[in-house]
Write a structure and sequence with these properties.
Largest sheet: none
Helix content: 40-55%
Strand content: under 5%
Shape: flat
C-alpha cells in the first residue's frame, strides 16, 4: 500500500508531466454588431438643451456608420496592397510580359560614340613579358672594366 501511495504522490506532485499540454491563448470574442442598442439612450435623464435623441442616439448611430465605412475602406485597401505585393513577388517579366528596365554598364566604353555594334568588345590582353626576357633585349653599355 505504501508503494502505491508513493507512486500516486509522485504523479500528483509532477502534475502529470507526460499528460500536460502547452497553454494556448483563447481567441477573444468580437461581436459583429453592437451588443447594446443606442436607442436605450432615450431613457436617460438628461436636463441639457437638446433632447435625448440628438444627445445620445443619433451621435452613436452616426459613429457606428462611420466606423463601418472606415472598416470597409480599410479592407479594400488591404486587398489592394496584397495584390500589389503579389505582383511584386512574381519574377520579373512574367506578370506583364515586359522585361526589367536598364542596361548593363561597362567602364570606359565609347562604342556608342565611335559607332559599331553598340557592344563593348573585350579582347584578351597580350601576355606581359617576364623580367628575364625584358632584360635580355636591352643592350649593355660598355664600361671601363669590360672594354678592351
Amino acid at each position: 500500500m505504501t508503494r502505491f501511495n508513493t507512486l500516486l504522490l509522485v504523479v500528483i506532485l509532477s502534475g502529470g508531466a507526460g499528460f500536460s499540454r502547452s497553454a494556448v491563448a483563447q481567441s477573444t470574442y468580437t461581436p459583429q454588431r453592437p451588443t447594446v442598442s443606442p436607442w436605450l439612450g432615450l431613457w436617460q435623464n438628461n436636463t441639457g438643451a437638446l433632447d435625448n435623441y440628438h444627445t445620445f442616439v443619433r451621435p452613436q448611430m452616426e459613429l457606428n456608420n462611420t466606423l463601418q465605412m472606415q472598416n470597409a475602406a480599410l479592407r479594400r485597401q488591404e486587398v489592394g496592397l496584397q495584390n500589389l505585393n503579389n505582383e511584386a513577388v512574381q519574377p520579373l517579366g512574367t506578370a506583364t510580359g515586359m522585361l526589367p528596365t536598364g542596361q548593363g554598364a561597362t567602364f570606359m566604353s565609347y562604342s556608342h560614340y565611335y559607332g559599331g555594334n553598340n557592344r563593348p568588345t573585350s579582347r584578351p590582353m597580350a601576355p606581359r613579358p617576364t623580367a628575364s626576357k625584358a632584360t635580355a633585349n636591352i643592350p649593355t653599355v660598355p664600361t671601363a672594366s669590360n672594354s678592351h
